[in-house]
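Q: How would the structure tokens look for this protein?
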Amino acid sequence: MDVAVPRPSARLPGVSMAGFRQRVPAAVDIAMVAHPSVTLLVDLSEGEGLVYDAHGQHGRGSVVVGLHPGELRAGGRVGECLQIRLEPVAAAAVLGPSPELSGTVVALDDLWGPDAGRAEERLRAAASWDDRFAIAVDLLGRWLGTRPPVAPEVAHVWRRTLTGRGRVRVERLAEEVGWSRKRLSARFRSQLGITPKRAARLVRFDHAAHLLAAGRAAADVATESGYVDQSHLHREVKAFTGLTPTAVAVAPWLAIDDVAWPGSSSPRRPPGVIAGTQPAS
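A: Here is the predicted structure in token form.
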């Protein structure tokens, strides 16, 4: 699998992107691991392309994966794919308030209508991944700023949840912004599609998943990530992915994080993955 990442100048706040190209066309079946972002998978393959299975619901083509999707598998004969991660604050600006995206998987054309097909055509026709990233920035930039921004208090609580790795209590976050816990939960969910408590669980799980992928023992991961014990970690991993901690530790979805998403907490770089800008075909 070849991986292309955009130059630092070709990025938007709260948005990260990576391009994937399978060197030898073959059917794949990968369990996706939950991440604290809304994920757009833009299928640029010819022929069969991307297929996915979410809670027994099957679909095909470009898709938007909401926060906390649960058990989700992606596969098919995927030649090329653009993956875009939107932090919840950015997702609200690009997709609009999205409580319906929490825990769901939605076809991209169901959200963007004919614009989705036109975007795919432009991206597929581009000569290089650099061009594709530029097109994606242009498309997303048109949406950013067209909708009212989330409340500063909501954005602050999200940032604190992320930097605190999900271990800052909701009551303390409510005090920091001068709101009651009830008001914070209501505004946070209406604007980001997830409650502060569930957001904290997701961020804490993401940190734990990367520690597992780095080869850390489950007991140590549970302690460092703030779980009560190893059984608590096991239950959370199962709830977010349908997998065991052992399976998450070797999940391909995590194995390339340090290449595809510079700055992620995964310290490993697996052999055979090439980072950088490359021709689109």
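The chain is about 45% helix and 15% strand.

The domain at 152-250 is CATH 1.10.10.60 (Arc Repressor Mutant, subunit A).

Upvote if useful.
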